[in-house]
Fold each of these.
Amino acid sequence: MRRISIFGATGSIGQNTIDLIARAPEDYDVVALTGAGNIEQLAKDAKRLRAEVAVTAHDHLLDDLRDALAGSGVVAQAGTDAITEAAARPADWIMSAIVGAAGLAPGVAALKQGTTLALANKESLVCAGSLMLETAKAHGARLLPVDSEHSAVFQALVGEEMTAVERVIITASGGAFRDWPIEDLANATLDQASSHPNWDMGQRITIDSASMFNKAMELIETREFFGVQPRQIEVLVHPESMIHAMVGFNDGALMAHVGPPDMRHAIGYALHWPARQALPVARLDLAAIGQLSFRAPCETRWPALRLAREVMETGGLAGAVFNAAKETALDEFIAGHIGFNEMAMIVEEVLAIITSTPGHIDATMTLDNVAKVDHLARQEAQRVIHNRAG
Ligand code: NAD
Ligand code: MG
């Protein structure tokens, strides 16, 4: 029996993970499941999977969670500290699938117990890549990628030497507005940005796919995960989302990972690694698909890609600023306070302000300093938004 925990269990990645676990309940002892507002789902899964503990991020929902779990034997807890504490409960495999910077502290706590951390929460690598990697090293923990592109790169690298790697190509579907005239983007609505052509994901990452902030974060994630230089990483628009990534070697070979757009593949690979096990995903019929297409990404359409390259160039805590400013801008877009294009403009402004003020970006990468600069970037983002409106 493997002891496993799922952080962000009620979300899209969390539910796909539970789908796989629930197919073989005899193989797993479920330790902790965490969620936020969806108490009904959290309690239902915690009871079904006989979890030791279920934790909601929201303190005020503790009584609701207790009521929903009454008589089940599952312990109910609430609050962000309780989530981080749950990450320290001994487990053999932990899924990190909280959305946003909120996934960082539990991720670090999980690594400190020397476990295997399946990482969907790309924000923790964007905000604090070296902290995550150093914590993993210091405690003998293992990080496995869950983002489809990074799982694909990881699989293409099996048996290869990193010294033979020339480049890493991550693909992007192009999101909801791939084929829109650029001048229409300013008026894109929340509904339009919240539908993805190929993947069924949480709302935030779906909007980040339309703006390419998702791919921008994945550029940084690629650099951190695989230790490649920014100039070695390319983004390729591939509307069909069948090839998830390619690794280019020094003999000219490109190893491509091809598969259906179903996150259960990457989750299942991380769950069973280093073995492969049968997974309930569709098998591709390439003859029926007929052709796959590719194009270069346009940085005028997607300024987020340029910003990610600037962040990698700046280094230090620039990733934490980038992520926090993006999260704030995304909240404001979802709330209907700013337009679609304004998200990138705000992130760019916040980055410029904070990187030009000494003492922030170059601070040591500790959880405290990441939290401080995250807070500052959110404040600056609000100020920039306020000034734009005024
Ligand atoms: P989602 O919005 O569907 O789910 C997010 C989960 O995080 C939920 O369980 C929610 O309750 C929890 N959560 C939200 N705010 C929280 C907070 N402040 N504290 C604690 N928990 C909180 O998101 P998702 O699409 O499942 O994405 C999860 C992560 O995986 C993200 O980092 C995303 O970028 C990454 N990812 C997702 C996909 C996908 O297909 N959905 C693919 C690749 C990577
Ligand atoms: Mg991805």
Amino acid sequence: MADFTGKVAIVTGGSRGIGKAIALELGKNGATVIVNYNQSADAADAVIDEIKAAGGGGMAFQADVSDAEQVDNLFKTVTKEYGQVDILVNNAGITRDNVIMMLKPDDFDAVINTNLRSAWLCSKAASRAMMKKRYGRIINITSVVGIAGNGGQTNYSASKAGMIGLTKSLAKEIASRNITVNAVAPGFIETDMTSELSEDLMKRAIEAIPLGRQGKAVDVAKAVAFLASDDAEYITGQVLVVDGGMVM
Ligand code: NAP
């Protein structure tokens, strides 16, 4: 198992679901973790408590990561408090699904801003800190729908495809500074985001997964931990799909 002792990691949207599992995976393996959240303060505090109980450290930090000023404040606070940012996981995300005729421009903007703009803002702020140290790992949580598309998710899949473009361009831009940038594309994972699907949709989704089950948040967290580890030091600009074989 990777050892993240001495590393400082920021996980956006680390209060629930996949982000929570990533924060725990990094924190329990030695990283100091900043668990960013937007609304779920108690949940974020509970993640930090769990990391501390396992011998790690860090803090919860409220910031709407689609907002440039709040992102600036997040990174200023972290660099002041801990002096460095080694790992950034751009995980915060929302859905506002509907067929295109029913979607409003606001539904498009909200999803693009929360999923894609946030990743760009945080990557920019993290790059500054990482370039100074000539070390960094940026991992973007995209989605299989950013690769394959999905009816009813034109806004969401556009944001996730955008994250893949961001991953590859930034990987090329900052590779010479020893910073890797990769993406993880989860398939159908058991979290609050997918809990409201109808039984019928859930059944059909699972039928389309060769491994025959919905993924768990920890399945994604393990892939992120790998890309953040020294074992992945020669991997950059890649999209690692974690979907039980759903899209291949
Ligand atoms: P989730 O359970 O709904 O959790 C979303 C997280 O994002 C929460 O911690 C939430 O924090 C945070 N968040 C939302 N808006 C934010 C903002 N403006 N600023 C900061 N944090 C914000 O979702 P999930 O299923 O874990 O998904 C996590 C990521 O994986 C997303 O990017 C999603 O698109 C992607 N993904 C999920 C699946 C899946 O099947 N679940 C599949 C592919 C990709 P608060 O509660 O504090 O607001």
Amino acid sequence: MELFIRYLRPYRRLLLAGMIIKLFGTLAELSIPYILEHIIDRIVPAGRIFPVLLWGFLMIFMAFVTAVLNITANRRAVDVSSRAIYDLRGDFFRKTMHLSGTRFDAFGLPSLQSRMTTDSYNVQNFMARMQTMGVRTPIMLIGGILVTMIMDPSLSLILIVLVPLLIAIVILVSLKGVPLFDKVQRHLDDLIRIMRENISGIRVVKALSREDHERDRFNAENDALTQSDILANTIMAIPGPSMQLFLNGGLSFVVYFGALRVNSGQTRPGVILAFLTYFNLIMMSVMGLNRIFVMFSKAKASADRMQSVLSDLPDQPIVPDDGTSDDTGALIEFRNVDFNYFVGTKSENALTGISFRVKEGDSLGILGPTGSGKSTILHLLMRFYDCTSGKVLVDGRDVRSYDKDELRRMFGVVFQNDIIFADTISENISFGRDVDKAGISFAAEAAMAKDFIEEYPDSYLHKAQVKGVNFSGGQKQRILIARALAAKPRILILDDASSALDYRTDAALRRNLRNHYADTTMLIVAQRISSIKDMSNIIVLDNGRIIASGTHEELLAASPYYRQVYESQMGSV
Ligand code: ADP
């Protein structure tokens, strides 16, 4: 609720104006059956044509006013809710951009996506409807009952008995149905997650003939979603038809008793006609109440889910350096670092006892089997995650003591599976930073991308499609490397960033890095020894631990694992 208030508050004037318009629209609508009663019972019997025309015109005029006011109010409601949701989505997006790696993992990408889309839609829908139905329903209900009581108190007894009964049904059913919608949304999250995994991993699913297994996994989750959806909607569907039943029953009562009362002269026929219309309007309002509850329950679950992200506390505060990190003169230093992705649960460390130093201008190669913790080292260095124990230092300072922007500005990075955006090559390289044309083409040349880019007729203005599918793997990697180089970073990080390049291009890339970026400190993760053999130092990881380190020659002499990898790769060249 607090979320609705917070985001509607800036538009409270518009909101209030819209609600007042709706109020008048509803009052105008309420007046129509009353005018009809007046015409039938008092004007027509008098037998004069002019008053009939006059009152008839008034009725048409009120119908017109009702339509205009209601349309205006509905448009305003959409306007206000769109603006509020625009703000909400903006805040939500900014918040997700600043979530730490740990919190991002905890929410999960699919869940964040559905919060941003489905949930924000539910919230918007409710905000819009609340401004219209939220005004119309109570006014119709109370106003309708009051008018009918004035017209014929005895007949209105039917309403006074029925309406509270129906409201009670609506409330009881809603109390039961509301929590179910939360469950539906959780199942939907899981389903989207499975779909995402399969679509992004479609090749490996096909290659390993895992289609049947994946289909079963999908079906199981799809069943769970369908079951909970059916249950939630079945419960919430009870009030609608039961109200139809009460409505028709009530109408029959009104007609029957009304006819008796007209015959005995206790009431007039116009009253019965007006009564039937009010009865209809009131019952519709109670049904509207039911819809408001359904929408509210969905919107509340959705708002809670968005709020839980928005109010997620920063788990990576800036911690002042405790001054015990005696400066060793290294630009980058890991000091006995342990790290576990799973906060608070007992599981194996992704890194254990990692220590190394890299001096400014030096380069570090990182080698090791998949899952050995290579990328994790880079994540800790950039403080996507905080280490569990030990220290990560940059420039002799604990990374936790840096403002995140200040820290990350030092880096140019290419991570595995980095994304090319659907924009021009030039924009993909400059990436919103202050890089001029010369800077872009210098970076592209160093990244060995210049030649293929300049073969396009529109050169740097050539457009990438979504995820860069119109480029080959090697072309994408070269554009990404150019992006990392373009801002002339102090530290360059390449995480398996040249794996798709042929050996010659890879060698030329390394030569360019050596010649043009000699002052840049580099951390390079690679599968190929040829990519890292010229580095000033190399660490070999296995199972989260450093099992060997040294220069290429030292490792060839000292590390059987390194020698074995080297020999196997030499054999394949
Ligand atoms: P490498 O880069 O050497 O392939 P990683 O550093 O990516 O290895 O992963 C090291 C270990 O941490 C692996 O066991 C991997 O499954 C695990 N891991 C990586 N990222 C996450 C994450 N976000 N959440 C949980 N575990 C992770």
